[in-house]
Design a protein that fits this description.
Blueprint lengths: L12 E2 L2 H9 L7 E5 L7 H4 L6 E6 L2 H10 L5 E3 L15 E6 L5 H10 L6 E7 H8 L9 H9 E9 L4 E2 L6 E8 L9 H13 L5 H4 L5 E2 L5 H4 L8 H10 L1 E2 L2
Parallel strand pairs: 2-3, 2-5, 3-4, 5-6
Antiparallel strand pairs: 1-8, 6-9, 7-9, 10-11
Helix pairs in contact: 4-6, 7-10
Length: about 250
């Protein structure tokens, strides 16, 4: 199969076996089930199939890749579907660890789905565009710190594992890649309204150059009880605990 024909899917296929082994070895034993997103030609898949700790499946949208995987890995369970639309409860019973060389054009959407299903996804090991990986792993105060940094770090411990250079892919991307790992922390629920927490984070970063006092005006809520030390800062300067405090301080406008 000509991998160039699949460039529109945002997928760059890993060709370095050592990198594939490193990614596979980065998994812990956090769940009984493992799902690989976008296996493509199966370079990572073959290392995952040897891990008998997991009930392993792969999910692949591209029909040509599905045929290739069936022909070369007949024992592999392949679900031909779009991960972003898939009902995870139909794929496995119980928790699911996720791994993959994620298509660049949907990698942020994959992470938002992880966030929305955080109660059943205890671990994620993924290769992303380096810029995205750095953003997810960023700490408060960094220019790369963003919505996903805050949301995911509220529920996951995030590690930047290693950088991957362009020459190990076919076709080579124009940017470097990186592998990160997310492991679910002990926080089951935040001590605040979690939906409001999400709205505050998203609204604050949508106007990240403004102070929180101005950025949060679209929420239409009373900010009088929010400490000025928080309102005078910008979204990228606040930690998870700060956003929790804001969520607990907001009141409806009378």
């Amino acid at each position: 199969m000509d991998v160039r024909a699949k460039k529109h899917l945002g997928q760059h296929f890993l060709t370095d076996e050592n990198i594939a082994q490193q990614i596979a070895d980065s998994l812990g034993k956090r769940s009984p089930n493992l799902l690989e997103i976008g296996p493509g030609m199966g370079v990572l898949t073959k290392y995952l199939m040897n891990n008998h700790h997991y009930h392993f499946r792969a999910i692949e949208l591209d029909s040509e890749s599905v045929v290739y995987l069936h022909n070369h890995y007949p024992e592999l369970e392949v679900v031909e579907a779009d991960f972003l639309r898939a009902d995870l409860s139909t794929l496995f019973d119980g928790d699911i660890s996720i791994i993959g060389n994620f298509p660049y054009n949907i990698s942020s959407q994959i992470l938002f789905k992880v966030y929305n299903h955080r109660d059943c996804i205890p671990e994620v090991v993924g290769m992303f565009q380096k810029e995205v990986a750095e953003r997810v792993a960023a700490k408060a105060g960094s220019k790369t710190y963003g919505i996903l940094s805050v949301l995911l770090s509220a529920y996951y411990d995030i590690e930047y594992l290693f950088t991957v250079h362009e020459h190990v892919f076919n076709p080579p991307p124009k940017v470097k890649s990186a592998v990160i790992r997310l492991r679910r922390n002990q926080i089951e629920t935040l001590p605040c309204d979690e939906q409001l927490f999400f709205r505050i984070v998203k609204t604050g970063f949508n106007q990240r150059r403004k102070t929180l006092r101005n950025a949060l005006k679209p929420l239409g809520m009373n900010l009088e009880q929010v400490p000025e030390t928080l309102l005078s800062q910008r979204a990228e300067q606040l930690m998870v605990e700060d956003y929790i405090q804001i969520a607990n301080s907001l009141t409806p406008l009378s």
